[in-house]
Amino acid sequence: LANPQWGGRFAGGPADIMRDINASIGFDQRLWRQDIRGSLAHAKMLAHVGIISSDDAEAIEDGLNAIAAEIAEGRFEFSAALEDIHMNIEARLSEKIGEAGKRLHTARSRNDQVATDFRLWTRDAIDGLSAQVTSLMRALAQRANEHAATPMPGFTHLQVAQPITFGHHLLTYVEMLARDKGRLEDARARLNECPLGSAALAGTSFPIDREMTARALGFDRPTRNSLDAVSDRDFALEYLSALNLLAMHLSRLAEEIVIWCSAPFQFVTLSDAFTTGSSIMPQKRNPDAAELIRAKIGRISGDYLSLLMVMKGLPLAYAKDSQEDKEPVFDATEAATLSLAAMEGMIRDLKAAPETMRRFAAAGFSTATDLADWLVRALKLPFRTAHHITGQLVSLAERKKVDLAELSLAEMQEVAPEIHEGVYGVLTVESSLASRRSFGGTAPDNVAREAQRWCDILGEE
Ligand code: ARG
């Protein structure tokens, strides 16, 4: 049988495979709330400007609200023959309220309808994720506050470089996430224009009020070009690219948690709530959640690339290719939602091992830079010379298998006769940390202040 919504000029129905490849109801039913919201706004506007009667608009409103309840309660039967969420809902509306339902699609096309629904959905997704990012930032800032003075080794090249504090390290991710949130908010501001009323591609001959529908749906304004409005998907791509950077940041933290949990490190432990066992090795405690978060970037960047390739070279205006826009966005949103929630859970759960972290903070001559700086300050040597002398002292300590602080004054003076007792004041982890007072540095006072600043900004809950 021909499609009841557009089958007027068709004698026969679609081949099974035509129906299969064409139907999007399997995934776009997730747009039902947005679709109903858009239709409610459209019907109200049609009545307001006199295109339909207010009786019809009321019948439509009641009908759509009843359909929303059917879907919410799982009583709605989705049909693949009706292709997508838009026609499923519209067909049901006509079934329920008759003639009035058939007037809803006046001055509208599925092209502007789906563009509107999808923007609304993406906007909701951004709001949800943005709140989750804030919540993760809060967890990190609170843990950073607690560990403002906990020493740990800072790495470059994953080699021990200089002592830092665990709080400083955690606040690094707060900074990254703040930028991620900013990017999501930027994307939101740019997508917040309403395509509804652009119709199929050229606009409409009906005297519609696009300002009214835009306002009703919480958009800042209507889109300015009907062709652009129905064919643009860069709002979705911009959203996905923001998710890519977010996922990349989460993957770095996830990787660090995996490293910190490993036996050679043991900087942190996760409770039973955030570890899993092995089916063969009874002793194992694996940080699976961190590993999965580390991996999610794979699908999120794949999702971005999928949509980018769908849109590449697509001639104006709408083509069915654009129907392929939704699954990548749904998939990436789900991956990001899970990742953020699991990461927050782990951050709140993890227990640091300050003694271990401090021991490694002191290892590998991590205060060598402090020694070089002291030679500059106390002996007025040029930094390059101080660097060279410190290198010789490190080499001496390495040969004697001791720490820098364990070299005797006489041994040091063999390398540089001017060195005096004062040098021992800068060779401990604590003195190193306390000295890093430059703006943005890791001195515990700085870190405590920054952590508190973030806690104040982010608020309680
Ligand atoms: N399901 C379609 C989509 O997601 C709706 C728009 C269909 N428009 C059309 N002219 N066939 O893109």
Task: State which percent range the strand residues make up.
Answer: under 5%
Question: What class do helices, strands and sheet pairing give?
Answer: mainly alpha
Q: How many DSSP H or I helices? A: 19
Q: Spans of 5+ residues with little confidence (pLDDT < 50)?
A: none
Ligands present: arginine
Would you tell me the overall average pLDDT? 96
Tell me the Rg in angstroms. 31 Å
Number of separate strands = 6
H-E order:
HHHHHHHEEHEHEHHEHHEHHHHHH
The CA-CA distance between the termini, in Å, is 55 Å
Strand order of the largest sheet: 1-2
- Residue share in helix: 55-70%
Taken from the alpha-carbon principal axes, the silhouette is elongated
How would a crystallographer describe the biggest sheet?
Answer: 2 strands, antiparallel
Structure description:
The chain has 19 helices and 6 strands. The protein has helices at 16-22, 25-28, 32-48, 54-72, 85-97, 99-103, 110-146, 166-191, 210-216, 226-231, 234-261, 288-311, 326-349, 354-362, 368-379, 383-400, 409-415, 429-435, 444-458; strands spanning 151-156, 159-165, 193-194, 221-222, 268-269, 351-352. The radius of gyration is 31 Å and the shape is elongated. The strands form 3 sheets. It has a two-stranded antiparallel sheet with strand order 1-2. Strands 3-4 form a two-stranded parallel ribbon. It has 461 residues and is mainly α. The longest helix is centred in the N-terminal third of the chain and has 37 residues, at 110-146. Helix 8 packs antiparallel against helix 11. Bound molecules: arginine. Arginine binds next to helix 7.
